[in-house]
Amino acid sequence: MKTFAKALFAICILGCFAFAKTSTTSTKETVKIVIDAGHGGKDSGQNIEGIKEKEVVYQITQKIKELHQNKNVELYFSRPNNEFVSLDERVEFINTIQPDLVISLHANGHPQDETKKGMEIYFSKKNKFSKENFEYGGQLSGIFIFSSAQQVEIKSANFTILSKVNAPALMLELGFLTNPEERTYLSSKEGQTKIANNILKFINEI
């Protein structure tokens, strides 16, 4: 029953945002998207039982790159390998590209509660594209909820990668590495492929 309710909610969300195409991309022949893999190199991010956030999100970006086929979408990667890239360097790279959207990938953690789970989508109200960000967040959450009945929350926060770029930007906390079930899913080939396909479906609908 809960799964059905979530699926129904997803349909509602998709219906609400189906016609919310922003003017940023509606008249452009080619859409530029930056995929930002969080952390890297000396910065592991979450590190639970040897599963490192930096590696999980990098692997997902590589899966996105592998599965991408839309010739009308140009993908750029702010961290093309597993080396450390500072936030300032990422912001500079993004602002040079001037993309239509930035998607920053992360994995969450809650050391006091391993039952905590779900996906969180963040946008910044300081970003001048905050209206577009909220619409994009709704579209993306609908795809994830509908495809896997996943719990998704949309939140605002002024993270550097969201607030300092001159482009619409979302940060995706894809799940909790501290939750055993989600840790297994996020580090698995099957889970990473499903996440990559959901992100590409979203990108192709922009």
Automatic annotation (TrEMBL):
Residues 1-20 form the signal peptide. It comes from the Bacteria. It catalyses: Hydrolyzes the link between N-acetylmuramoyl residues and L-amino acid residues in certain cell-wall glycopeptides. Its EC number is 3.5.1.28. Pfam families: Amidase_3. Residues 91-204 form the MurNAc-LAA domain. Gene3D superfamilies: Zn-dependent exopeptidases (3.40.630.40). The keyword Glycoprotein does not apply. It is an enzyme of class 3 (hydrolase). Keywords: Hydrolase, Signal. This is N-acetylmuramoyl-L-alanine amidase.
